Amino acid sequence: MTMPAAPLTSLTDVLQQYWGYDSFRPLQAEAMQAVLEHRDSVVVLPTGGGKSICFQAPAMAMPGLAVVVSPLISLMKDQVDALTECGISAACINSSMSNAERLQVANLIRAGRLKLLYVAPERLCTEKMLDFLESIQVSFFAIDEAHCISAWGHDFRPEYRMLQQLRIRFPGIGVHAYTATATEHVRQDISTQLGLRDPEWLIGSFDRPNLIYRVQRKSDVQKQVRAVIDAHPGESGIVYCISRREVDELAQLLVRAGYKTRPYHAGLPDTDRIKHQDEFLNEDTQIIVATVAFGMGIDKSNVRYVIHTGAPKSLEHYQQETGRAGRDGLEAECWLLWSSSNFITWRKMQEELPEEAKNHALECLKGIERFCTGIVCRHKALVEHFDQAYETPNCNACDVCLDQLDLVSEPLVIGQKILSCIVRVKESFGADYVAQVLVGSKEARILDNGHDELSTYGLLKEERKEAVRDWIEQLGSQGFIERVGEYNTLSVTTAGWKLLKGQADVRLLKPSKKKSASERSTKIELTSWEGVDRALFEVLRGLRRRVAEEHGVAPFIVFADTTLRDLARRRPTSLVNFRQVHGIGEKKTADFGSLFIDVIRDHCEQQQLTTDVSAQSESTPRPKASPAAKPAAAKDALSLSSAKQLAFDLFKTGKSIEQVAEATSRSVSTAHDYLIDYLGVTVQEDPAPWVTEAEFARIREAAQTVGLERLKPIFDELNQTIPYDQIRIAVACLRNSI
Ligand code: ADP
Ligand code: ZN
Predict the structure, then answer these.
(1) Average pLDDT over residues 431-459
(2) Among the CATH numbers 3.50.50.60, 1.10.150.20, 3.40.50.300, 2.170.120.12, which is that of 211-402?
(3) Which ligand minimizes its atom distance to the CA of 14?
(4) 630 C-alpha to center of ligand 1: Å?
(5) pLDDT single digits (tens) 559-615
(6) Whose Cα sits closest to atom 20 in ligand 1?
(7) Atom number, ligand 1, closest to the C-alpha of residue 28
(8) pLDDT for 625-653, tens place per residue?
(9) How far apart are CA 640 and CA 18, in angstroms?
(10) What is the per-residue pLDDT for 61?
């Protein structure tokens, strides 16, 4: 029996009424339309893309009960909690419930009082359950995490195969599959396995523009990890390690250093795992150090960073694991710390696999290896890996595009030296050997082979062998070199021959270290914190936790971080204005409105802040360098670490560098760096009050003679009478006026 389709316009009302959202995200409208029209669909959106609402909103707009298949109790529970908080009648049926509880749910359904039912596939596909569903009005079936049906996916669950019955037993009712899976093969398999009828295919972009990717070689891992954590005080993050031993060690170190940290891996007793996961969700603990065992079923939307302390075994895994950051669409950082030994470890582990699986695993490993050693935009590299085009010239959200990589000035010459050495040793040796020849090593095997006689011997003798090794990797990742045979001997590719002839472009990194987390220079936009009163945000965060505890739900279910920031930005003191805030629907206004308004009013009175700021009156300065091609939402999502944000707020009010250093508990030199960034981001042309007018005039004059490229000539031109710090500030402003 096919019901008439409800109009899409009513869905906008549903979205506003229950969720407090004003518009659809990409493909959501199309996905909902398919549901309303009872047309089967396969919806592929990245994590955080907003898949749930694609079936939750239509469920509210259609008569009957929507049945949602979900693989994990924790996922069901989170979604049911979130829906209930929005005023939607949803429930789940699972093994952790008593018979009486299940009966209660069945009664609600019979009375037509439930809109969404969450259930595991094996329970759904029992005869009893299917009979029951045939006796009531089902609006549609939504299969969440649908890749679990495919043996090709990363998370095959045989019980999902039972869902094949649905299409046969409920011919008139739409079946809709939702997944974030990136591979074509798996998507096709989903449709085939479910027996979908000419489904609507809706495939979103795999890019996650709010994730800031940074890739760095592992050096002092503890220091590197702490630098990232320190840049996110009080915020939630996940640190992935390859082995359980590493998890235990790192977690202990962090606990000892005073960080709220918990370990998570399959070797821990169930009770500990559940406890640690709950503590993370409830924000009693800030950091989870985990193996890949952690993550599935984690819907926590405000994970602000994910750190990998070793390379995962494929880009698919990397995408999956980093995907847990920034689900709320706000900025989040993804740090990948890797070392060559990671790849050796994975290769060893894969040796035992059957031939076909082994080859596949090796291909995957090559992909992530290229990603680590590569120096192309990380967003581009990831998106293209998943066979989608990426046109944005500068993502403004990765180490490569943020200009943190120091490139050598003559990469062609170095590239040619390396390639010609590979040719001279007759493409019969590995990377280490070639590097040794290039740096002029006196190792016996090189002398025995007579390779000290080669014209390329010692061509790069000023460099360290490790630097040359890195360049070889970089040439490999850019396709100029490939490794062949059992011994991984280097061979020059067709592209490599072009490079030898000077007919190709190459980029190589300077051997010097990349910048660390704490000293990263950020030209990144700060718009997602624009206008937000940080102190109020912290106060509201505390309140959210208390409320969540009382309601027995996770804090992010009460309000997402986006909502909390919007509250601290607009500072509503009436229910009408409260209801206008992003992510606040009718029920949350009724439930939490007065409570939050009281706290906001108190805070604003004490701090003499304006209240009831309307959305339109916010001034949002746009940095000059913002990429035109990027959607506004993506740009809005980027921001800075909180210390820097505070510094920016203070600079805006004209505070001195010393005052800012004190307020942010940072050194004067760091505060100085913040100021330089602040001037860049706000595109300020006047250095007052940090440089006097007279000094500025003299610096400007000197710069007219010697240029703005470097500071030293200006310093000398001024007979060294004005300190560098002042010159740096003035020059930052002069550069803005070019
Ligand atoms: P996914 O299941 O695809 O990973 P979710 O359904 O969990 O993503 O959605 C991620 C977040 O985005 C949630 O907090 C959700 O409420 C929010 N969201 C979804 N759709 C919209 C929208 N149209 N406008 C604003 N926020 C949205
Ligand atoms: Zn980039």
Answers:
(1) 92
(2) 3.40.50.300
(3) 1
(4) 20
(5) 999 999 999 999 999 999 999 999 999 999 999 999 999 999 999 998 888 899 887
(6) 50
(7) 23
(8) 333 333 333 333 333 456 777 788 888 88
(9) 31
(10) 93
* d(CA 179, ligand 1 centre) in Å: 14
Nearest of 517, 519, 526 to residue 678 by alpha carbon? 526
Determine the 3-state secondary structure of 347 from DSSP. helix
Q: What is the DSSP letter of 626?
A: -
Q: What is the pTM of this model?
A: 0.71
Residue 669 binned pLDDT confidence (cut-offs 50, 70, 90):
confident
Ligand 1 pocket list (CB less than 6 A): 21, 23-25, 28, 45, 47-53, 301, 327-328, 560
pLDDT, tens digit, 9 for 90 and up, residues 218-264: 888 999 999 999 988 889 999 999 999 999 999 999 999 889 999 99
Which tens digit of pLDDT belongs to each residue from 182-204? 778 889 999 999 999 999 999 99
Whose C-alpha lies nearest to ligand 1, atom 5?
Answer: 50
Question: Which of 652, 723, 642, 714 lies closest to 681 in space, CA to CA?
Answer: 652
Q: Are 58 and 41 in contact (CB under 8 A)?
A: no
Structure tokens at 710: 């470097």
Residue 228 CB coordination number (10 Å): 24
Which residues, in sequence order, are CB contacts of 111 under 8 Å at separation 6+? none
Q: How far is the CA of 301 from the centre of ligand 1 (A)?
A: 9
Domain layout of the chain by residue ranges = 9-203, 211-402, 406-511, 527-736
Q: Whose CA is nearest to atom 16 of ligand 1?
A: 50
Q: Find the ligand nearest to 383 CA.
A: 2
- Domain 406-511, CATH among 3.40.50.300, 3.40.50.11540, 1.10.10.10, 3.20.20.80: 1.10.10.10
Q: What is the DSSP letter of 509?
A: B
